Amino acid sequence: MKLIAGNWKMNKTPSQTREYITKFLELVRDVKNTEILLCPPFTSLCVAGEMLKDSHIKLGAQNCHYEEKGAFTGEISLSMLKELGVSYVIVGHSERRWLFGETDEMINKKVIACLEKGLRPILCVGEKIEDRNAGMTLKVVESQLKLGLSGLEDLAGKIDIAYEPIWAIGTGTPATPEDAQFVHRFIKEFLGDVRVLYGGSVSPKNAKDFLSMPDVDGLLVGTASLDPESFAQIVKASEGE
Ligand SMILES: O=C[C@H](O)COP(=O)(O)O
Fold it and tell me: Does the record bear Isomerase in its keywords (predicted)?
């Protein structure tokens, strides 16, 4: 089944979350053939978890810490997330890698911790514009996969990968569906049977073009997931695929 995930990033207070989910639940009530995931900020997980608990919409976190507990000021553990109903965690998003210095080693620890706790990581990979211009896209993606998944085997059904070319994120300039397909194929050849999502300026207008590619197994949506109507349209674009 395809996965359509909304990453709200640092947007929406708990009351705005409540308002969004009230509308969104109604809009996607009849969706049956698509897995839907909402990833609000930590401060909205509690209200979202309560509202989504008897629904077909899953709840994800945007980050986690790999340690179980302890003196890690400002961090959030997987047990804390699990108790709120979280079943997915976005790991290694490019904004965490490049704005907050998250390394492949930290990302690897987070992926391992998620799997040990029974939470499903969505590992994000993707190249910068300089890498793309230098023809290094596949090398960069391969290295992020190797390091991020170091020591792990048999990942089918336990993890999803999100291919998010950094130059396409929040810019209104997505990759072409063919470019995405090319990298997704490579990821599947490298890792075996995993779902690969595309992320980067996905909108209700282009969602179907991506989803019609044979190796695009879902979408990780930022900006267009902030409005319940536009996110519902993207979810519905996946229903027929
Ligand atoms: O996690 C989502 C991505 O970073 C994509 O963001 P965007 O849809 O605003 O380009």
Answer: yes
How large is the angle between the packed helices 137-148 and 177-191, nearest 10 degrees? 40
ipTM for the complex shown: 0.99
With CA atoms as reference, report the closest residue to 2 among 166, 192, 181, 234: 234
- Residues spanned by the domain of 197: 2-237
164 in catalytic set: yes
Q: For residue range 147-203, list pLDDT tens digits in order.
A: 999 999 989 889 999 999 999 999 999 999 999 999 999 999 999 989 999 999 999
Q: Is the CB of 200 under 6 A from ligand 1?
A: yes
How many folded domains does the chain comprise? Answer: 1
Radius of gyration of the chain (CA): 17
CA torsion sign for 216, 221, 224, 227 is: positive
